[in-house]
Write a structure and sequence with these properties.
Elements: H1 5-25, H2 27-44, H3 54-76, H4 79-89, H5 93-108, H6 112-137, H7 162-179, H8 186-200, H9 203-219, H10 227-244, H11 247-261, H12 272-287, H13 298-301, H14 310-316, E1 318-320, E2 325-326, E3 328-331, E4 339-343, E5 348-352, E6 357-358, E7 365-366, E8 371-374, H15 390-422, H16 430-443, H17 456-472
Antiparallel strand pairs: 1-8, 2-7, 3-4, 4-5, 6-8
Length: 476
Amino acid sequence: MKINQEKIYSVNYYLILGIPIFLISGPFLADLSVVILSLLTVLYLRKDYVYFDTNFKKFIKFFLIFYLLINFSSFLTEEYLQYKSFKVSIPFIRYLIYIISIYLICYKRQNFIDILSQIIVLIIITFFLDSLIQKSFGFNLLGFEISKTGRVSSFFNDELIMGSFICKVFPIGIIYFINNKKENFLIAYFIISFVIIILSQERSSLVLFFLSSFLILICIKKFRKKLKYILLAFSIIILSIYSINKESLNRIYKVTYYQLILNKGNIPIYSYEHQAHFKTGINLFISKPLFGHGIKSFRILCSKKPYTVAHEIVKNSYLISKFDDQVVVSKDGLWPQWRKVTLKKNNLKFFYGPADIFYFKNGDHVKKGDLLVKYKIYNRDGCSTHPHNYLIQLLAETGIFSFLIFIFLFILNIYILVRTIVSKNFKGNRNNAILLSISVFICFFPLLPTGSIYNNWLLILNFYSLGLLFAQYRFK
């Protein structure tokens, strides 16, 4: 039976438009859509490769090299790890076909990006209203309760990923305002997106939001005149939230500050928990630098010698005075249950909480070698399901070659962004390409704590912008 190609494209069109909505419900519907898209594209649209331009063909080659590398890594890993590793690496090819599906839809349906940007704006407005309801009443429109920590999750329920989702799709929504000449509403769009991320209390997402906002305001010429107004709006929002409810900013500011100065006055990488994950990942990389230990190996090997950093964690849970000194204990302004301790001669400041054991009281004199505090250990071996950073995970699980390909493609996206801005021979919609390149930059930004690079939900979200970008990146 002959299948009408246009009907296949129509099915793909609605599936791809629905991906951002499916992602809100969790990974199942989104991953099912990717599988259906892959099957339809391979079975009925494979001859449409003639629409691929040179840049997209080069990307496909790099993706295939990456695919072969992660499968070779799975092949070389220990036998008891192979099944879990191959379970991820073999079907990973579906994400390439998923990107191709998006590329072809954008090529065949010229209005796709405009419709998509409208959907993103509606999603963000809905999240904004629902988040305010959940913050105000303790539950959202679907009855999902706010988390015990006070973090707003809205329609994501128990998954505290709302900020991550918003900061990654945020640049796509701006396309609607530019293409429809509604730039006067942009400040409101920036503000509601910012408020959502503040309510989510996701620190990495807030950094990424500020980074993407800065890039957007600098890279798109017509936005530069609005820079001072947007900065003023951000300042007003921060002061308003702080005066009304300090809780929303506590985790963003106070927890970060506590994690950075906790224990011996040393500044860790993000936090001591993250630093423990990173060190474990580096230990794994050193033992197998070329092809790593295989996908999903971190969660199994992180507690084993010689990779574990359990001995360092135990050592860092104790704090000892280096000099004879006097203890000064004061209350913490934002967290009444915490205490701040200062020892001037030791040049030391630290906090301790209800779960920690502090052996002195205000005004006590301590001697050199005295044990000051014993911190409760929440993570005894630096273990987790993944090392919470794309680069460390690639090095630990699939080795240096996959790491280098990731770095190359990340730098390539920066080159695409710069070339799109400065080139006089750009063929597509320049602003669309700039915004999508910024979205890709934010999705794959490797210098902050991240989720697992092989997580289905994250891959579908991250590769979404990538497929859109290559469809817009065209030259004469």
